[in-house]
Structures are given as C-alpha cells and as structure tokens.
Amino acid sequence: MSNSMFDHKLSSPSLDFQPLYLQVADSIKQLIVKRHWLPGEALPSEFRLAEEFNVSQGTVRKALNLLTDNKIVTRRQGVGTFVSEHTSQDALFRFFPLQADGKSDNSPKAELLSVELCAAPAEAIKALQLNKKDKVTKLVRRRILDNEFCMSETIYLPQSYFPDIHKSSDIPHTLYHYYQSKFNQTVHKTQDSIKAVLATIDDAKMLAIKAGDPLLLVSRITESIEGKRIEYRLSKCRSDHYHYQIELD
Amino acid sequence: MSNSMFDHKLSSPSLDFQPLYLQVADSIKQLIVKRHWLPGEALPSEFRLAEEFNVSQGTVRKALNLLTDNKIVTRRQGVGTFVSEHTSQDALFRFFPLQADGKSDNSPKAELLSVELCAAPAEAIKALQLNKKDKVTKLVRRRILDNEFCMSETIYLPQSYFPDIHKSSDIPHTLYHYYQSKFNQTVHKTQDSIKAVLATIDDAKMLAIKAGDPLLLVSRITESIEGKRIEYRLSKCRSDHYHYQIELD
C-alpha cells in the first residue's frame, strides 16, 4: 500500500481476532471522522476500496453494509456510497419525535431566545461527563409547530467541541446540520429519558399555557459518530395536541 | 421438491422481481407463522434449506441474516438458527421501556385486577382496526417496580385472535410469552404514543398518588409477525422515580 491514497493501514492481526470486515468498517469510519471524505462525498468503488485495504470485495461489501446499517454511509442504487449528511429535513424528521395528533405536513420551526457561554450546571456536567471547570454554551429555544408553541429547549454544548459557537451570529434552526458542517460533529445517536412534569410559571409564559398543565420533559444525551457526548438537551413539550412517538421492534 | 419436508414452494418469478433472498426470507417466515417450526425450535441447516428451496447457500444465509435482524430467528454461534421465542425475561426487557431513575435490578411485576369480554370502545376500534360489533377482552393490571405501584395498564385484545382468553384462570404476568405459546400470536413490533396527563381520582387510588400528579400516558399498538394488530394497551405511568427511556440512531 505504498502508493495508497489513504494515509492509513489496517493494523496487523490483533490479539482479539476482530473479523476482517469489522476492521475495514472501523478504518473507513476513522477516515470519515478524520474528514478524509466529507459529508455528502462519494466513497471510492468497492473494487478500489478492496484494492486499497488489500481485502476481498466481499469483505468491503460487508463493511459497507454495516456502515449503512449504522447510517454512517448511505448507498444510492447504481450510483455509489456516500458519507451520510445531516440535511436539514433528514435530521429534523429522524431525531424530532414529537408529532401532531392529527395529520400535519408542517415542519417544526425554531426561535432562538438566548445564547451564552457559562459554567456547566451539575446535570450537564453529569450528562456530558465534563469536569467541574468546563464551560458550556447554553442555547434557549422555543419550537413552533402548526403556529403554536409546542416546546422549549435548553441546550448545553461543551466548549471544547463547539469553540466560539456563542459568538456566532448565524446559528440556524437546523442545529444538527450546523454541528456537522461548522464543527465537524456528526450526530449519531440520541438517548432520551422521558418524564411527565407540571408546567412552572416560567414554562407557562414561554409556551402560552397555564402553570400546572402537564408537560413531557425529555432529557436527551447526543453522541457523535466518534462516541463523544456532544450535546445535552432538556425539552419541555406540550402534549395536548402532540405526542412523542416511538416504534420498537 | 416432491420429497420436500416443506409443504411449500417458492413462487415462480413474480412480476415485481423481488430479490431471491427476500422470497426465501418470506417463505421461511410464512413457515414459522404456520407453526411448521415452533418458537424455540431449531431450523434445518443452511445446506438443507438451500437444497429444499433450490437456491444457493449464500442466498439462504442472506435470508437468515434478514430474519435475524428482524428478530424472527436467533442465531447461536456454532449451534444453529432458532425460531425466536418470547421468554419472560427477554420480552420484559425488550418491550418494557420504563426504567428506575437509580440503579435497580428488579424485574417489574404485574397484578391482574380484572378480565372481561366486552364491546370494544371507540379508541380500541380505531387502534386495532376492528368493526363496530367486534368484541375485545379487556384486562386491567397494575405494575409494581421496587415495591411501588409504577403504572396501571388497560389492555384490549380482539376476540378473533384471542378466543376465550377471558375464561382463562391462569393468565400469567408475562403476557407476550403467553400470547405466543397459547394463541400463536408473536409480538413483533410496538408503536408507542406518549403524552403527559394529570392523574384522575381513579388513577390516584390505583397508584397511591395524588389526583393532579403528572403521569405519562403511553398508548401502544402491538403488531404480530404477520403484521396484524393484536393488542392495544393504555399505560398510565408514574415518572417521579422512573423514566421512559429510548435510544435513536
């Protein structure tokens, strides 16, 4: 592989005997993490990858199948394999689980209320596995669905992964796409904990409801494809006209 | 295939050109649905299946991979492939998403409060796609976690899929396993809608809480592996010491 296009080699047979296709998948993922290929960019052909990694095309195919299942790459029939990209629509619908009770084709909108760099509160320190002195950028937003305030969001972003985000004047509605394109942080997994709570006086003002109304409190920890915890988000959601929907199989 | 062990043939090339492995996967699934192999039972070897279906072993392997991903069969390394079974533990943890806030190794328990055959209420008719005259068996249960009432459940089962279940004197805690072993209804998918509600006076009595306390209302539609809607379940869950947990990727 001396003339390899990659500055990367498969490690020699390791002690834990990881199957070859897993090693290949991991190598491809590392190259994506290192931005050897950018979001939306095409990967080389299976033939080319097999040659570069010095493995069979079948092994490359198995590796790409795994990365497709993990949504790290996307295959387009007859076209090729691409690094997955958080387009605004895709990220909105993949990770926004609140749905209108009736039919609604409207996308949720976001209103950014405040942005500040501050000391991380205790629950953000715990959720994001930070040190006590670490700072976070805190964003407060209000989401709008069908012309109604449907939820408030308080978002904590570690300063180390999102340097100077609090100075940006152009933070868009579609945060996951922004994290990927500006900070090279690709959202891969979210873990939501859901509780029912009563609206406080502040919640009531924010969402134009009454104090004491029931709300869903969704605490979300978001992991990047590198397995780092990059965002902690507390959402307080009305559920009188919406529901949180989830499918298990 | 005249001496075939299966009373089943692959259909001739169909008009929609479904890939061969999908046809094989579908045929194996149909044989499972028809109880040619029972839950927990081993499937024949890949070699044998390839011979029976008159396809390559590679095609059988692809079909079994798909059925494994769909949790319809389970592969045990070096042993073989088995029809998935809802053991009590497995079903409890796969489909019971309420978790204690702290660490808890206790399994949830269930207390059966009532069983009756009745006319289906409007929301069960809608959820289960029933006719207005269809009857359902209604079960009311209370779940206990860490010695505390954590949720009430109202469960609707169509009479056609669960004949005479209301006459059973031995309905166990682990319903999904019971559905599979006694009624040949294998739970495959659940779809949960979650709202926040205030406890009514009845809820408060049932769960030993105060009226007006916030509760999670989880409406669950359950599908069998045949794609039939077999259960509609309304759960009212305390979330003061528990949360509903979900991972997306």
Brief account:
Two copies of one chain form a homodimer. By secondary structure, chain A is α+β, with helices and mostly antiparallel strands.
Q: What would you report as the Rg of chain A, rounded to the nearest angstrom?
A: 21 Å
What percent of residues of chain A are in strands? Answer: 25-35%
Helix content of chain A: 25-40%
CATH topology of the largest domain in chain A: Chorismate lyase
Count of the separate structural domains of chain A: 2
Number of strands of chain A: 10
Mean pLDDT rating of chain A: 86
Distance between the termini of chain A: 43 Å
CATH C-level class of the largest domain in chain A is: Alpha Beta
Return the CATH architecture of the largest domain in chain A.
3-Layer(aba) Sandwich
Q: What ranges of chain A have pLDDT less than 50 throughout 5 or more consecutive residues? A: 1-5, 7-16
How is the topology of this model organized?
The structure is a homodimer of 249-residue chains.
Chain A: H1 20-33, H2 46-53, H3 57-69, E1 73-76, E2 80-83, H4 88-95, E3 98-100, E4 109-119, H5 122-128, E5 135-145, E6 148-158, H6 175-183, E7 187-198, H7 201-207, E8 214-224, E9 229-238, E10 242-248
Describe it.
The structure is a homodimer of 249-residue chains. With 249 residues, chain A is of the alpha+beta class. Chain A folds into 2 domains: 20-83, Winged helix-like DNA-binding domain superfamily/Winged helix DNA-binding domain (Arc Repressor Mutant, subunit A, Orthogonal Bundle); 88-244, Chorismate lyase-like (Chorismate lyase, 3-Layer(aba) Sandwich), CATH 3.40.1410.10. The first copy, chain A, is built from 7 helices and 10 strands. The first copy, chain A, has helices at 20-33, 46-53, 57-69, 88-95, 122-128, 175-183, 201-207; strands at 73-76, 80-83, 98-100, 109-119, 135-145, 148-158, 187-198, 214-224, 229-238, 242-248. In chain A, strands 4-5-6-9-8-7 form a 6-stranded antiparallel beta sheet. The first copy, chain A, has a two-stranded antiparallel ribbon with strand order 1-2. In chain A, strands 3-10 form a two-stranded antiparallel sheet. In chain A, strand 8 (214-224) and strand 9 form a beta hairpin. In chain A, helix 1 (20-33) packs across helix 3 (57-69). The longest helix of chain A has 14 residues, at 20-33. Chain A is globular and about 65 Å long. The termini of chain A are far apart. The model of chain A is unreliable at 1-5 and 7-16 (pLDDT under 50). Chain A binds chain B through residues 70-71, 94-95, 97, 188-198, 212, 214-216, 219, 237, 239-240, 243-249, and chain B through 70-71, 94-95, 97, 188-198, 212, 214-216, 219, 237, 239-240, 243-249. Chains A, B: This is GntR family transcriptional regulator. Chains A, B: Keywords: DNA-binding, Transcription, Transcription regulation. Chains A, B: Residues 18-86 form the HTH gntR-type domain.
